[in-house]
Specification:
Length: 355
Amino acid sequence: MIEQLLRTPLTDLVGVRHPVVQTGMGWVSGPRLVSATANAGGLGILASATMTFDELEKAIVEVKGRTEEPFGVNLRADAGDAAARCDLLIEYGVKVASFALAPKPELIARLKEHDVVVMPSIGAAKHAKKVAGWGADAVMVQGGEGGGHTGPVPTTLLLPTVLDAVDIPVVAAGGFFDGRGLAAALSYGAAGVGMGTRFLLTSDSAVPDAVKRLYLERGLTDTVVTAKVDGMPHRMLRTALVEELEESSAVRRMGPTLRRTLEFKRDSGMSWRELAKDGREMKKQQGRTLGQMALAANTPTMLKAGLVEGDTSAGVLASGQVVGVIDDLPSCEELIDRVVTRAAEELRRAGSYLS
């Protein structure tokens, strides 16, 4: 385990040794991966969107039992129990609250009152400006190369526009996997990088080994962005199931969609009233249509089938384009050590060009 080589606004803000963030991936970023990242000096983010309230509390307790280092929890800002989950973070002294969507100003204020760092994920400079104005401590910006829900603008173009728009720490995500990427992000002016697929493909990740091998076999063109899973653009591995979804009609998808919605309701323990409340909030926050909201319940169930149960015939596999340049499964410590060491070397080399 290496000592701190790079001090940035992110390491100062959060109290981690290295400016490397393991993003909150549903069904992937559990206690084992998060604590391994934290113990290696990075910022591990626990994914709570696929957890019930009780499961989240249990997961936080488990992470705190595995590490004394800072870590974070990713929350759905539009969830019906978002405020209660924030109270849970406050109660257990979680250092960072990250959000997939912009949290309400009053939620940001409550977290900040209790010294919880608020770091929403955003996809445009105007959104970064908005949450910064509401008091967010930092933002994570993901370019189109990233896995899961993503936008059309690549990181190299999106990142500078966000850096120009705000004066809070910016974490760059989408397309990062090694020390050269970290050095490049820091050179742009970012305070660190967020990596998802690269951490999914570590020995500390609980994703089944057979599924990891499937990822390692893929190339740079083996991901696809589709809206057929949950109605929003979603980057994932090309599989037979994804190709089938891409070619199918809305009517043909209706039966499987209803079945997976019922399965999600059972797994989440939510009542129909709670599901309806979540749906109304999703429509308000994201402007989704009724059809898109019906599809949204597909995502957790299909990701679980692929990433937890290893059934790629029934599940989907979220993935960034970096899957095409990853060929090993290091531990989180090995990964972070080599990313930071290489970044420091590249920054020193670049500095030698100055006359």
